[in-house]
Amino acid sequence: MSSTADAPRAAGGGKLDEVMLAMDVVDTLRHNENVALRELEQDGRDEDLKERLRRIYESQGLEVSDQILDEGIKALKESRFTYEPAKTGSRTLAHIWVRRSLYGKIAGVVVLLLAAWIGVSSWQHASREQAIQAARVELEQTLPQRLKDIADRALTEARTDDAKERAQDLLHDGVAALSDKNVEAARGAIAGLERLRADLAQTYRLRIVSRQGEDTGVFRIPDVNSNARNYYLIVEAVTPEGKVLSLPIRSEETGTVKTVTRWGVRVPERTFETVRRDKVDDGILQNDTLGEKPRGALDPVYRMNVSQGAITEW
Q: Which stretches are transmembrane (predicted)?
C-alpha cells in the first residue's frame, strides 16, 4: 500500500505532505523575499518565479510539481501560513480579561474612595450651608430680638438718669453693630446690657470694716507731694441677706481693675477723723454704713462725704 495514499488529509482537502511542501515553498520564497517580491510585483511573471523555485529544489535533489509551486506562490500572495500578531486593542482586552479579578478589586477601591470623597464633600458643603444659614438667622432674627428684650429690661430697671443713659448707649451700640453685620460687637452690646440690668437690680450696703485685726481706715502719702495725705475707709458690699459681694474696683494708684471683696474708698480728712473717733471711743464703730446702693442706680448713695477714688491694696 502506498504511503502517499495513506497520508492524512489536511484542512481544505489537500494531503498533509502536499500542504507541508507548500509551506516549505512559502518559506523558501520568504528567504528569497527580494526576488519573490520583485517577480510578484510584475504581472505575468509567476512562470519565471516557478522556474527559479524549481531550480532551487532540483539543486536539493527534490522534484516539486507545478501544482505545489502554484500553491506556494498563491499562499505567499494571500499571506497564508504567516503569523500575524493580534491587534493592540484585542490584546489589551484579553489582558484585562485575564487579570479581571485584580482590576475589579482596584476598581472597587476607586469606587469606594470616590464615594467617600463625594460623601465628605457633600457633608462639608451641607455644613457650610448650615453655618451660613445659622449666621444669617442669628444676625437677622436672634440677635435683634435679644438686643430688644434685654434693652427693654435694662431700661425698665433703670431709675436714675445716668443708668438710663448707659442703657441707651449700649442699645445704640448694638443697633449699629447689627447694621454693620458685626456679630461679635452685637453680642458684646447684649452682654453689656445684661450686666447692666443685673447691676441695676442689685442692692447692697457699703459697710465700713471694723473687725479686730483688720484696718478700718488707712492714709497714703502721694509720690508727687510728700506733705499731703490721702485718706481711705476700708469697706465691703453686703446684701440685705448678709452676703458679702465681690465687685470690680479700679485702683486710682495702679489704674487697674480688680474684683475684690474689700477696698478703700477715698474720703476727706474730716470724714476719716469722724470714723476714727467713733471707733476709738469704745472700740466699736457705731455708724458703720458709708453708703447704700439702691435698686435701679449705678452707684451707691453715700451717707458721709467721700472723695473720688479708690484703692484695692494697702
A: 102-120
At residue 230, the pLDDT reads 96
Nearest Cα neighbor of 252 from 264, 262, 260 is 264
State how far the Cα of 177 lies from the Cα of 215, in Å rounded to an integer.
Answer: 47
- Any idea what the Cα angle at residue 41 is, between residues 37 and 42, rounded to 5°? 130
pLDDT band at 5 (very low <50, low <70, confident <90, very high): very low
Q: Which residues is 217 bridged to in the sheet?
A: 233
| Phi and psi, residue 292, nearest 5° | -135, 145
Per domain, the residue ranges of the chain are 11-77, 102-201, 204-311
pTM to 2 decimal places: 0.56
Burial 92-111, CB ≥16 within 10 A → b, else e: eeeeeeeeeeeeeeeeeeee
Cβ neighbors of 309 (< 8 A, separation 6 or more) are 230, 252, 266
CA–CA separation, 78 and 182 (whole Å): 87
Q: How high is the pLDDT of residue 9?
A: 39
What is the DSSP pairing of strand 263-267 with strand 247-250? unpaired
Q: Within 13 Å and on the Cβ side, how many CA atoms surround 139?
A: 16
| Residues 6 or more apart in contact with residue 170 via CB below 8 angstroms | 151, 154, 189, 192, 193, 196
Residues ≥6 apart with Cβ < 8 Å to 75: 22, 23, 25, 26, 81
Percentage of the residues of the chain whose pLDDT score is greater than 90? 50
Residue 131 predicted with pLDDT over 80: no
Is the pLDDT confidence value at 15 over 70? no
DSSP summary character for residue 9: B
**For range 167-172, the mean pLDDT:** 97
